[in-house]
């Protein structure tokens, strides 16, 4: 069956004046579109439809063409979208009032160049920055390490505990996230993949009643708060050190100053009618009662207790911080900035493409879902790799 049309008097060929009508949702229509798509070297929908219209008239053509090209495995690799689901609820540690650094996330930044002395031709070595982020107050603690061995990491962790207290929950980034910069962070990769390292860390944690949580590979979304903290640290560090070389003591001093700056960043604006009459709430208010970059206050050590009631005032100020945190700060975490739609869960047996940051799309591996871990509300969030793209299987 051909189109009659109104082009009988044109100079077009017979096929163009009277193209063959192809029905929609037909197997033969799909095969013709596939053949033309491959002949045109995987052309896009508009070019493909224009070429088909030289000989065929497709009913609801653009929709049919897009449907077939979407199922092309070769094209899908270059425009594959990762699986999505409704954004989950925040963990209990993020929305429960607790002392600073009771629940922390740990990540490493670096390497950074460190010279062993202040002489002109000093030996240059690599150093790493261990970043600790408090889950409830967003306070940041920085430790400079000279190596990435298990002993150095545990010593760094002990220094953190001595200064900030014993945490109850620790969230660690998985080592595979460092493969994107393997040439510079090979030590990070080896450290976190070492079974002996994990065994020693877990033994230390069990002895001190600390619960460690390890995020899946290639899943920075599981540690978004920590990644944001690392980004803030790098922002200041790059602008301060630039191309300079510093000794271990100098770099450690710079990191302490950066720590004070990021812990003085505003969590949210606070009205002047609050109990402390400060301009904005910062992580520093939960650490020392004021921003770490604020000016020293007047010495009140000689003021009589009956006039000042110092400790009652401190307790009132502390309660005011947490009251502001509960009423105002938690409300800013209520909305979902992305992933607002409830989508079907990926079921066991689904064929997927595994996105690999270091490989081109044509070299991405195929996989099949063998099991799933469901969240308490029934939605599937956790997966072995964050870059999973379900394949558009042919009918």
TrEMBL record:
**Annotated transmembrane regions:** none
Q: Name one GO molecular function term.
A: nucleic acid binding
- Give one GO biological process term: DNA integration
Record-linked InterPro entries: DUF5641, Integrase_cat-core, Integrase_H2C2, RNaseH-like_sf, RNaseH_sf
Matches recorded under SUPFAM superfamilies: Ribonuclease H-like (SSF53098)
- PANTHER family, per this entry? PHD-TYPE DOMAIN-CONTAINING PROTEIN
- Protein's name in the database: Integrase catalytic domain-containing protein
To which species is this protein native?
Answer: Euphydryas editha
Native organism taxonomy: Eukaryota, Metazoa, Ecdysozoa, Arthropoda, Hexapoda
